[in-house]
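PROTEIN DESIGN WORKSHEET
SECTION A - STRUCTURE
LENGTH: 161
TOKENS:
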């Protein structure tokens, strides 16, 4: 499920990026060649970037691409390393649960407020927070289960069977 979810997330990010690129290009053409600005293009690009940020964060969780201080973790024994990884994952998951709940509250609170140029409910923009955090939570949960299934890593220099 996590792989399929990640594929859909990547596709949505690509669509947003393509739409933003085309919108900005159209804005340049309209403003400098035709002398008329598209009033909604900047707003669309800004909101697209918000969605790409949260969905991209979910993709990074799936790929294990978020920053970390691996030098310190790698210096630990395999058992201590697993404990640190478990603590880190549980902390991240706790934060994601809180961010998801608060993001839903923020989105619902702002559904009656509309953006000035496009008239989009601001709650739809703020939905990027709980959607992105929920996807991150799915990927982090998968990583947590794989952490329990995995055998402890070998010590540096230890022979692997």
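SECTION B - SEQUENCE
RESIDUE ASSIGNMENT:
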């Amino acid at each position: 499920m996590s792989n399929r979810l990640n594929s859909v997330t990547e596709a949505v990010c690509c669509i947003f990026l393509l739409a933003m690129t085309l919108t900005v290009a159209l804005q340049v053409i309209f403003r400098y060649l035709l002398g008329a600005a598209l009033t909604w293009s900047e707003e669309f690009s800004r909101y697209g970037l918000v969605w790409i940020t949260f969905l991209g964060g979910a993709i990074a969780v799936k790929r294990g691409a978020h920053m970390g201080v691996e030098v310190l973790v790698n210096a630990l024994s395999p058992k201590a390393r697993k404990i640190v990884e478990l603590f880190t994952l549980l902390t991240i998951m706790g934060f994601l649960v809180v961010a998801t709940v608060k993001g839903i509250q923020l989105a619902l609170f702002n559904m009656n407020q509309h953006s000035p140029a496009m008239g989009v409910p601001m709650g739809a923009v703020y939905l990027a927070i709980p959607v992105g955090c929920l996807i991150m939570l799915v990927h982090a949960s998968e990583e947590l289960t794989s952490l329990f299934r995995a055998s402890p890593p070998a010590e540096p220099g230890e022979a692997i069977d």
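SECTION C - NOTES
The chain has a mean pLDDT of 91.
The first helix runs from residue 2 to 33.
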